Amino acid sequence: MLEMAQRIALDEGRTQGVIPFLTLIRHSRPTSEMTGVLTPSICLILQGAKQLHLGQEIIDYHAGDYLVSVIDIPASAEVIGVGRESPYIGLRVDFTTEDIAAVVMEAGISFNPVDKKLKTGAYIGQAAEGLAESMHRLLKLAEKPDAAVGFLSSLMKREMLYHLLSGDAGHIFYQQFMLDRQEEGIGKAIRWIKENYARPFTVKELAKLTNMSVSSLHHKFKSVTTLGPVQYQKQLRLQEARRLLLGGSIPVTTAAMEVGYDNAAQFSREYRRLFGMSPSKDRKAFRDGNQTILDES
Questions:
Q1: Under CATH, to which class is 2-175 assigned?
Q2: Mean per-residue pLDDT for 247-260?
């Protein structure tokens, strides 16, 4: 798999091929800490290592390990212990909650975990044989695509999700499947904030919307996302503002207003606290190639 990935990922950073949900990543030197939002995906390291900062945890993971996120979770990570002769090589497969639901329903998967507590919607595991074989075949298809690449790759992705759902941490996938289908509770709270991140709210208002007590909402929300509802919204706002700033020439004040801030000074303070530098300096560092974004495995 490493040899195939290196033949495809010749350039630094991200390589997007013919399979739309597959991305290959290459880094020939260690990176600074990259802040961003984990999105639903499977990210497998083929060579090198990373250090993940998730909530209060700091986790090292290496070749043969994968990171899975089943919801959007603010996090940061850095590539460690690599060089030009032995670069970091990773692959990322994106999926949606609809992909999870299709596999759960069609394969008739269900869980009855002994521990009923909500789990953080991201975890690190070791690639078992079935999952590794599915990814190997996906890489072969990416290297030498044929006319049925779209059809075959979608089947391979479903096979990967099946292996993850039926593995040791399958209950985390199933938890998200259930949360996504609940009309009330944490699933609804997360969806509401993602759809209304620029809109001010109080935890009391969100608790009423989801038919939960304030204490229950806060506790369960933090269990799944590692953050409280207000902190989760703030990080989504700042990440979106950063995307706007790094992706164009929009003024800092305009970016702040776009994501719901009415005080530019407060926006700059919170931006610096999260990303380590002011919005203008961050944009300059990104354009100079000295800053990266956590949007890859």
A1: mainly beta
A2: 92
